[in-house]
Amino acid sequence: MQNPQNKSAAATRVTTAPSDENPAGKQSKPSRKLVKQNFDLLSPTIEAEFEMAAERAKAAPVPPSVPLIGAPVAAVAARAPTNEGTREGATVRQLRGIKNDSAKITHLCTPWTYVPNVPPQLVGGSKDAYVKWRGKESTSHLLYFDVEATNPDLRPNKKSNPVRYLHAVTADYDADLTAPIEDAVLRNAPADLRANYISTTFSGGRRLLWIIDEPVPFDDVIAKRFYEVAGEALQVSSLLPGLDQQAWLNPCQPYDVGTNWRQLSEKPLSSKTVHHWLFEASKRTDWSKAGELDIPFADAQAEVEKQFGLRIEVGERIHRFWTHVNIGGNESACVVMENGMICFSRDPLFSPWPLVLGAEFARKYKADKIGNAVKDVWFDGKTYHRKIKGVWHPVAKDDFRKWLCSEQKLDDTKGKGETASEVTDAEVFVQSNRRVDGVIPCLFDRGDVKEINGKRFLNCARVKVIPPHEEPQKWPTRFPWIARFLELRFEHTERQYFLGWWKRLYCSALQGELLKGHALFIVGGVNLGKTLLGLRMVGPSVGGCVDASKYVAGTSEFNKEACEVALRCIDDGTVSSDPASHRRFSEGVKAMVANPQSNYRAMYRDAQSMEWNGRLLVTLNDDAYSLEMIPDLALSMCEKVMVLKFQNTAYAFPPKHMLERTIAAELPFFLRWLSDYEVPADIKGDNRLGVKSYINEELRLAALNAGQTGNVLEIIDLWKNRNTFESDTWAGTATDWYSQVVADEALKPLVTKFTPRGIGMKFRNAARIADSGIEVLDSDGKRNVYEIAVTYNRVRKAVRIKPDKPEPAGDQ
Questions:
Q1: pLDDT at 65
Q2: What share of the chain is helix, strand, coil (3-state, %, to 5)?
């Protein structure tokens, strides 16, 4: 017998009768003194059984690959070499921790390798003094959490930073234990659910830690019910005495790192098992009757053959093979049934397959069945979404239920004493625990679920880039047609800008994080391949494109298709050139580049805010009507667009079917070259857009003359022809010029459609163009003074605003 001073208490629960102070008779946390008293009352027989179990454990052979119970962590690590956070090919899990009780910021940690640095005077001393030291902001210690909060860098809090993921579960025991009893009790734990680590607390108690193989979505709402179900499955109340029930039920509980960490098992807790526990918790029922699980005969037949080496068939008479009980040698006392075994010689009469095959198999089978059924399903409040061949698809309720029955083999009928079928329970679980606030396309992001501004969204993006060829490429060896096309259509400098623009789009998409870039306008004659460039080259490289004319011009609020691709194209002549439409178009282009936030709006669905960092590609003919589509090239707009010119070089295109096959075959080689292409330093831009803006000066002047600014220049010509001037220049504000022109009855109808402020904006735009004859002379912060060349022979000076001159405040 052991020294009475070293005896430890058996698993103890303290339950009080209902009272005014405790109306529910809730379980309370046992004191260490009470645990000690209860253990002293244990019979010698029970203590002897513990000691015998410990002796049997020592004598039992242990496979070399499994560490002995209580083996130090260092010894286990020595037998299992690690390599940059991996162990035997599996990633070593990490938890979140804080450095003291006052800390708010969390960090990644591995408690089982942490070496505490507790002041010597506190070791073995008062717990109150230890807790006071641990609460100081200056203390550098470790307390770890089983969970990860919405903001993972802050400690979890039910109100301000709720739990989002579960990484582990910890059971805290307030009782001193001797090593033999500790080992004997722990060896009685289910083999498939054995804790990974055990440690010692400051007060001499124990903690068990189960690490989950991957994070599991979690919620405070069902935390208590989950821990009740998990506690029963893990047998936490009976593994060791003195379970801290309050800490067990609290997902935000921080645990002191303690000391003497030892590894008990290398096998982590399966996430499928945890999914099943969540399922059971959602039903608010106790998961303790594994025998109620309906296992199809084919699965039971295979497991019987695996466990017992027997091939059974329905209707066959056979002995009671699943126990070692002698039933008198009757070899036909049992009958194989579809749902289990009937045994005539022994109670119970009917043993369902879970009872025959064992609780371990039943747990795993049910976890696989229910967990797999709901793992890849989300619910947005109206519609279910299921991943089919790697893509999320909306699924109606009836179709979802049919799928649960036919594909997942869930039962749609109620069993005896049940209030709902398996299908209904699975539905309720998905609605409660796998719910998203909306569905949006996060282009090229490989994650399924994204958390944005505190909301959870399902990523429904489908587009994928064309993978580049594996080997480096040289221009133009493996893509001769594409190279020749780009050389003929772009002048050298403009080709460098175009390739830089395309590289930023493609490479950021390839890396899974689409970056912003310029809106691109390509202007050229007819039949030069402008549309071909967008539809067959740039578009396919990033998964496709869509005609976006009605979205950019603001004529449609439903932009589902435009948000689901990375390239929006507008072809020549699809946007009206009237002043109001042109203004809306210019504002749409500017907003698309400057503000990545967009409303994702599908018909019959609520709009969802999302980030879209794709590109706009506009192809135009070079006639005056088409050029009116180019936005007003004010300074703020110039930074956000590129305007390039297609060269009118003679080239005979091959037949369409041959051309499209050629481009598709060459694109992977070209895209590998583009991925390795170094953008020249003189055209590299900042991180915001990646490449500097570029506007072809010839097209800038043509656009101004074709657009509203061109109309003002024509009015200026008429005004000069109808007036005489004392010098070669006229100077004044936009209001001064407007007053003079409106006084001319012949010119009045032409100018009254503009406001003085609008005329000032046209003057500023024209002043940026060579030979416009307009210059901004001065600005007093409230209004601008302009100088207009009025010599009739149309000889105009090259006029520019100096680069360091601030943007004028306005016009009057």
A1: 31
A2: 35, 20, 45
| One-letter amino acid for residue 647 of the chain | Q
**Cβ 763 vs Cβ 772: under 8 Å:** no
| CA proximity to 773, closest of 701, 698, 694 | 701
Picking from 534, 685, 507, 505, the residue whose alpha carbon sits closest to that of residue 613 is 505
What does DSSP say about strands 27-28 and 729-732: parallel, antiparallel, or unpaired?
unpaired
Altogether, the residues listed in the chain come to a count of: 812
How far CA 9 is from CA of 5, 33, 127, 202, 242, in Å, comes to 11, 10, 21, 18, 8
pLDDT tens by residue, 260-304: 999 988 889 988 888 778 767 755 433 334 346 678 889 899 999
Of 172, 170, 110, 97, the closest CA to residue 140 belongs to 97
Q: Which amino acid is at 62?
A: V
Cα 215 to Cα 218: distance, rounded to the nearest angstrom: 9
* Tokens encoding 158: 């039910």
Coil, strand or helix: which one is 717? helix
Contacts of 717 (CB under 8 A, 6+ apart): none
Parallel, antiparallel, or unpaired: how do β-strands 340-343 and 350-352 relate? antiparallel
Full DSSP string of 498-512: HHHHHHHHHHHHHTT
Report the alpha-carbon distance of residue 504 to residue 542 in Å, rounded.
Answer: 11
DSSP, res 490: S
Tell me the sheet residues that pair with 691: 684
Residue among 165, 166, 238, 252 at smallest CA distance from 208? 238
Predicted local confidence at residue 768, as pLDDT? 73
Contact 458, 392 (CB under 8 A): yes
The residues, any chain, with a CB within 8 Å of residue 528's CB and separated by 6 or more, are 489, 646, 648
What is the secondary structure of 302-369 as a DSSP string? HHHHHHH-----TT-EE--TTS----TT-TTSEEE-SSEEEESSSSSSEEEHHHHH-HHHHHHHHHHH
How many whole angstroms separate alpha carbon 696 and alpha carbon 575?
A: 22
Point out the residues of the chain with pLDDT beneath 70: 1-92, 184-185, 221, 279, 282-293, 324-333, 343-350, 367, 415-418, 553-558, 573-579, 603-604, 633-636, 701, 704-710, 769-771, 779-782, 792-812
- Residue 563 has phi, psi (to 5 degrees) of -85, -15
What 3 state SS string does 251-277 have? CCCCEECCEEEEECCCCCECHHHHHHH
Phi, psi of 443 (to 5 degrees): -55, 125
Confidence (pLDDT) at 445 = 93
The 3-class secondary structure across 626-650, one letter per residue, is HHCCCCCCCHHHHCCEEEEECCCCC
Report residue 370 as tokens: 């229910």
pTM attached to this predicted model: 0.54
499 closest CA partner among 686, 678, 693: 678
- Predicted confidence at residue 42, as pLDDT, reads 34
Tokens describing residue 403: 């799928």
> Quick one: pLDDT at residue 292?
60
C-alpha to C-alpha distance for 338 and 340, rounded to whole angstroms: 6
Q: Which of 529, 516, 543, 518 is nearest to 571 (CA)?
A: 529
- Of all helices (H) and strands (E), which one includes residue 759? helix 756-767
